[in-house]
Amino acid sequence: MVEPIPQPSGVTQEVATGTLPAWAQVEELVREAHQRYRDHDEGAVADYIPILAETDPRLFGLAVIDRTGGVHDAGDARHPFSVQSISKLFVCALVIEELGHDLVRDRIGVNNTGLAFNSVMAIELNDGHPMNPMVNAGAIATTALMPGETSAEKWEHIRDGLSAFAGRTLRMDGQVYRSEARTNERNKALARLLSSYGRLDEDPLEVVDIYTRQCAITVTAHDLAVMGATLASGGINPVTGDRVVSPEVCRDTLATVASSGLYERSGEWLFEIGLPAKSGVAGGIVAVAPGKGAVGAFSPPLDRAGNSIRSQLAIGHLSRSLGLNLFASAPDS
Ligand code: GLN
């Protein structure tokens, strides 16, 4: 096992804060970002899950929710699509909430694989270690850790947990679930491989089934922004006012997603955009600005790593215009 990074003891964690521009200005900038990329048509819609190939590539939604629950929606912000890999972010938070920081670091890991989200090589190169909760192998291992005596109970916990993040009851799209369940041999292979290394305590196929269900949960760009804003607000959903997870869980989850949320492109993403973010193959991306709020974006055409191109462009634009980049600093003036 890798040596843990030494931690200073007895020092209180101060919170990074800062404010977004005034509501009307944010509204204007969200509209501007949407307009700017509305006609951008690079990329290809995912087709390895057959039903996703039928998605209209022109759909484009953008939403910002600030930490007070202020809403800014543009374009197709309320158009439903499947959450796919973005579920990994929120399931990771729920598992850290249940089992704690150390267990997730040691059992799943928090380092980038440098390889594709569904890589078999990543497992082989790391002695069967799932590496991080944002790639398929690590996400399957994380889903297996959800509380619940049975698969049905684990699934209910996931659906209820993601609903608490969104502030409304989320449902699974049966068509998306069945389309992926018929074709997910690779995820089954990943789970069996983890199992062969003793990294999965549950039945691999049952865990993949729960994972496939969680990926088929329907959300909108607006929902993603509310879900992300909950992580930006120390775990309190800014729309419902309900506590979903603790502030420490938000911190740990955002650190995890910063290093691997956009898979092998996560380093470039941090370099260019400077925000923890998670993508899904249906075209969604959520980016979180701790202490400020979150951006949810949806546009189906993807780059080769499986990240929505227009969502990346629009979030990049907003990161600059709203001053969200975590690494941007200036001297006191
Ligand atoms: N359900 C998809 C899969 O397991 C999710 C992948 C993704 O969104 N990148 O392949």
From TrEMBL:
Known EC number: 3.5.1.2
Example of a GO biological process term: L-glutamine catabolic process
InterPro entries, alphabetized: Beta-lactam/transpept-like (IPR012338), Glutaminase (IPR015868)
Keywords per UniProt: Acetylation, Hydrolase
Class of enzymatic activity (EC top level): hydrolase
Catalytic activity: L-glutamine + H2O = L-glutamate + NH4(+)
Molecular function terms, GO-annotated: glutaminase activity
Gene3D superfamilies in UniProt: DD-peptidase/beta-lactamase superfamily
Sequence positions that bind substrate: S85, N136, E180, N187, Y211, Y263, V281
Quaternary structure annotation from Swiss-Prot or TrEMBL: Homotetramer.
Family: Belongs to the glutaminase family.
NCBIfam families, per database record: Gln_ase, PRK12356.1
Protein name as annotated: Glutaminase
Species of provenance: Candidatus Avipropionibacterium avicola
Gene: glsA
